[in-house]
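In this supplementary section we document a worked example of the pipeline. Step one takes a protein sequence of length 247 as its only input; no multiple sequence alignment statistics are reported here. Step two produces a three-dimensional model, which step three serialises into structure tokens for compact storage. The input and output of this example are shown verbatim.
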Amino acid sequence: MNGQLEHISSPDDLEGRLQVLLTAAAFFRFLARGFAYPHPGHLAQILTDIQSIPREPTPALTALQVVWSQVAEPALQEEHVRLFLGKGLCSLHETSYGDARRIGGQPVELADIGGFYRAFGVEPSPTQPDLPDHLCTELEFYSLLLMKEGYALNEGWSEQAQIAADAGFKFLEHHLGRWIEPMVQNIRDNVGPVTPYGTLAELLLESIQMECARRQVTPQPFSGRIPVDESILGDAFICPREGTPPN
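The serialised model returned by step three reads:
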């Protein structure tokens, strides 16, 4: 439907659509928190969040609940550092993934992502100076689009709702929907399926696929990760135990 709003014929239709949008927004925000560095208290918050989001259980969600309830926070911190920080095994940056379809290179992709953010008055937090293509930033932005669409629908602002819906469709088609699959495969290649970030990655992929199906988006996924020695991301590694939040 290219992001087009569905026809709402009754208050019940509106309520149902709002429930879908707000539940999805909360879930993508939860996924963003899951991939953030696990500072003290992070694990307890994740386990609380899982219980509070009104989403039907799936095998991926059930597996995550079981595995995360059995892990200790220090082990989670060590695994996050090993996998994701610096030039870790599994980059959480969109522009670390690509193939011949990524014609413009990193600067063009970052500019395009930044354009989405600016169009909705969003700037990355100065206290968390991640590049705009970081997974957590993209997930939080997509969650915001869902919230804006829901709010506009609830207020009867059809034009504003359409703008948010179109932006969500395009962001999935050109960004989130293209690189999550190779990123998840990258994680699969470096951790077992029954591990905290293994289960979180599978839940992320399932959620993106479900959202693409809901919006009828058919993105063209990238084939894999750009070799690390060709990447120009240049993440600086700073140990979070030294008191500075990681990138």
